[in-house]
Each structure stands twice: as C-alpha cells, then as structure tokens.
Specification:
The chain is an alpha/beta fold. The chain is 23% helix and 21% strand. Helix 4 links the parallel strand 4 and strand 5. Helix 1 packs parallel to helix 9 and helix 3 crosses helix 4. The protein is globular. About 3% of the residues have low confidence. Keywords: Hydrolase, Protease.
C-alpha cells in the first residue's frame, strides 16, 4: 500500500476572513464558494481576488483551498460555468468540488491544473461509483452522509490508494439523502440546488384536514408544536479514531454559513484531535515530527481473514441501508461472520487491524458544546445510533457567548490586551481565550484597569463593537476569540 499523508482536517469558509481564520486555527484545507455555482448562497462567498489572496495565505501556511462548483447546472448556465472555471484556474486554488459529470469533464479540459473532488450531492455509496469517477479524473469522493463506518472501510479497501475519501465529521445534517431536497423550491421558490435553501425542514408543521380548510390541527411534541423534519447535528469528536481507522482521508466540518468563531473553535478542536490520534498511534511525537509514515488500518486483502474477526462496526453494518426496524429486538443476531460474506453476497467486508482507542483530553471533548448547536448525534456512522430529529424545537442550543476579539497585546505595564467587544464583560467574569493548538486560556476580567479606546477608565465593558483594553499578563495572539459561559443557557435562531 502506498503511504498516505496524515488525515486532513477540512474547514469551511463563507468569506475571506473565514478562510484565514480556518488556516490560523490549523486547517489543512479550506473549502469555500465563489459568487456563483455553489450550494451556499447565504455566505458572502469569495471573489476571484479573494481566492488569489486566500490561496497565497493558505499556501504560505501549508494549507490548500478547494472551491465548490457543485450545483446541477441548467442548460443556460453551461457557458457561464465554463467561463468561471477558466477564471478560477489561475487564482491559485487547488481543487474544484463538483457534482455534475458534465462539469467534471469540462473542468478536466478547461482547468487541467486543478484537482477534482466529487461532492456529497453525487450520492456516492459504493466502490463501483468511486472507481468510475476515478477513471473520469476525480481524485476524491465526498461520500454520502448516510454511510456507516463499515461501508467507508469497504470503499477504502476497493479503490486506488491515491484516491481520497472525504467524510463529514461535524455539523448540520439534512433530512434529504445527501442534501438532495426539493421542499424549499416547492414551498418558497428558493432553489436548494442553487444555494438558496430556505431550510423548511426546520419549520414547525401542523395538519389540515381536506374538508376543514383553515382549521389547523397541531401535532404536538411540546406545547409549541413539532418539528418533524428537523435533524440533529453531527459530532464525531469522541469517535475520531474510528473514523480515521475506516480509511477516511479528509474529515470535513460542515458550516460555510457559520461565524468565524465557529470555524476557529471547531477547526482547532478537530485538528488537535487528529494530532492526538497521530501521537497515540505512534505516527508522530508530541512536537509533530514523523516517527513512521501514516497508513490507515483497513485490511484490503481477502486472504487476511485468518481469525475471521468481526468487530462491532462490522457486526452492525447489516442495519445501514436494509431498514432494520428493531435492531435491538429480542434474540436478534445481527452478526456477519466474515466466512459467510462471500457465500451470501459475493462480497467480503474489509477489516481493520486492532488498536487501543484514542483518548482525548476533557477540554477537547467539551469544545463542541461551546458553539451553538442542535442536539448532537453520530450521524449514520453507527447503525444502532442513527441520527434522529429534534422534534421539540428548531433553534440552536447555546451555552457560551463570544464576548470579544483580540486586536493586540502589549507587554506595557505587565501586559495589556486590546479587544473589540462583542458582548458584556464585567470585573470578576471568567473568560476564555481560544488559542490555536492549545487548550483555552482561562482569564478573569480584572477589577480595575479597564479603559476605553481613548484611554479613559471604565467600570466594565458594556458597549458591543467598541474598542477596550485591560490588564492581561499572558500574551495572547491577535484575532483570538474571547468567550464566556452564559448565565442561563439559551436557544438561538442560528
């Protein structure tokens, strides 16, 4: 097997600031959209000039930039896409993310210097599709979000070693298969395929009986109604080892519409988790120096089943797409002994070489709870624990607030930090600085020494979007986010 590079942490960005933030907090690559032909229109997205500047910045820091061009184009958009690809090829970006096969073939001709990745909207669920796309020039497939871990292993074992597998690791899930949903277009005229989804899956629904028009019958999960399509978010932080062991090359954080703080916090968390994996599995030392080349643990050879080992992930794989109604029913045996695979289906599941689980520090496990989120799940990776809906609300849960952003730090007077305020900070309040590659730095707002932009003393910071400074003995980096636990957890719209 060809040795692969270490697992990639792929972060989202909705604008140039988000791209730079992702790189600063450790992203190996950043995916973002241009002003057209991407599946997210809500973010401001990047101009061609932004792509040039962002690519330069990313490359200077050892990161790469991928551009989404993943709509299914209409006939009257084909010429414009061709022009767009021609413009993109000279901006310094590294890859295009496409869904449409026609666009893929066009990109090979118009922008042959760019790597081609096939979007999750293509719905790749098997190695046959992945291999066909490889033959067409794709060097990465973003698997359908509905895949379980055993299916990921099996694809890894049956595709070329130089083809990447990208899987989602964190963020919003969709009620439609791989995001292919028409509800928004039908109800609002806003086309999800062109990045304008109104997210009607998050709305509250009631019943109306045909002969009683206008008479609404609530379907109550709570007094406020029910949200029958509203899926949970994904969080694989506690299972990062299983995902990497499955052969995933790239771990994708969802969220191009999210804030710079979300990008910083989740990129930092997952990058640190991957580093922990590399150290605990013996690929790197604590300083990140290579001890041995990284290679995934997927067993590719069918002859390597000497003990017919069936682990829990393999055992659960029968439940993935087969619609098991009650996987925990009495006496049900869901095991799939390896020696029976070939007899039953002509296919034998890939195994992994056993290894101790990777243990993450508590602060890292807590990080996903410090951004706004819906209830977390592990998506479809573990069939016994599939993603479900939040039927009682559509809003996000928030326990932490961004209270400021570091503008500068000076050693004068024993150390002083200048911040742009975002929310209230008062003496005695416990605040955390979000630092790249490190646990958050706890800091207590001092009882005195707070000054406004003009140097006048103030009792507290209570004006958002204003500049303040305060004593801080520890040097903190520019642009570091400052956050604080809310006094009462709240629900927010987004």
């Amino acid at each position: 097997m060809k040795h692969r590079r270490k697992p990639e942490v792929l972060a989202p960005a909705g604008n140039l600031r988000g791209l730079i933030t992702a790189v600063d907090y450790g992203a190996d690559a950043v995916y973002c959209g241009g002003k057209a032909f991407g599946m997210r229109s809500a973010p401001k997205n990047l101009s061609l000039e932004d792509f040039e500047e962002g690519s330069r910045y990313a490359h200077e820091h050892g990161a790469r930039v991928y551009v989404t061009c993943n709509i299914l184009p209409r006939n009257d958009e084909v010429k414009a896409i061709e022009q767009y690809l021609g413009d993109l090829k000279d901006t310094g970006v590294d890859a295009l993310i496409v869904t449409d096969i026609g666009v893929l073939m066009m990109a090979r001709r118009v922008a042959p210097n760019l790597e081609l990745h096939v979007s999750t909207q293509a719905g790749v669920t098997n190695y046959l599709a992945a291999n066909a796309l490889y033959e067409l020039g794709a060097r990465r497939v973003v698997l359908a979000r509905e895949m379980d871990l055993q299916a990921v292993r099996d694809i890894r074992a049956n595709i070329p070693d130089d083809m990447d597998i990208e899987t989602f690791v964190h963020g919003s899930m969709c009620m439609a298969f791989s995001g292919r949903c028409l509800i928004s277009n039908y109800l609002t005229g806003r086309d999800g395929n062109h990045g304008e989804c109104a997210q009607p899956c998050r709305w509250k629904y009631s019943l109306v009986e045909e002969k009683r028009p206008g008479q609404v019958f609530p379907v109550n999960e709570t007094n406020d109604g029910t949200y029958i399509f509203n899926s949970q978010d994904m969080c694989m932080m506690e299972h990062i080892d299983d995902l990497i062991d499955s052969g995933a090359t790239s771990l994708k954080i969802e969220g191009r519409s999210k804030s710079a703080y979300y990008i910083a916090a989740m990129t930092n968390a997952y990058k640190t988790a991957v580093n922990e994996y590399m150290v605990q599995r013996g690929f790197e030392d604590e300083e990140g120096h290579e001890l041995k080349p990284f290679r995934d643990r997927v067993v590719r050879s069918a002859d390597n089943y000497e003990d017919n080992r069936v682990d829990s992930i393999m055992q659960e794989s029968a439940q993935s797409f087969h619609g098991m109604v009650d996987p925990e029913g009495p006496g049900e045996d869901l095991s799939i002994p390896a020696q029976e695979d070939t007899e039953a289906t002509g296919f034998r599941h890939a195994q992994t070489v056993p290894a101790p689980p990777v243990t993450l520090p508590d602060w890292l496990l807590e990080e996903p709870g410090k951004v706004a989120h819906r209830d977390y799940s592990t998506g479809f990776y573990y069939p016994r624990q599939k993603v479900t809906q939040n039927t009682d609300r559509s809003s996000y849960f928030r326990e932490w607030l961004v209270v400021g952003e570091v503008l500068s730090w000076s050693p004068e007077d024993g150390g002083r930090v200048t911040v742009m305020s975002r929310n209230k900070m008062e003496p005695g309040q416990l605040v955390e600085f979000l630092l790249p590659g490190q646990p958050p730095l706890e800091f207590t707002v001092p009882d005195n020494g707070i000054r406004d932009e003009d140097g006048n003393p103030v009792a507290l910071i209570n004006n958002p979007a204003h500049v303040f400074s305060m004593p801080c003995a520890v040097e903190v980096p520019v642009n570091a986010a400052m956050r604080s636990r809310t006094k009462k957890p709240t629900l927010k719209a987004a």
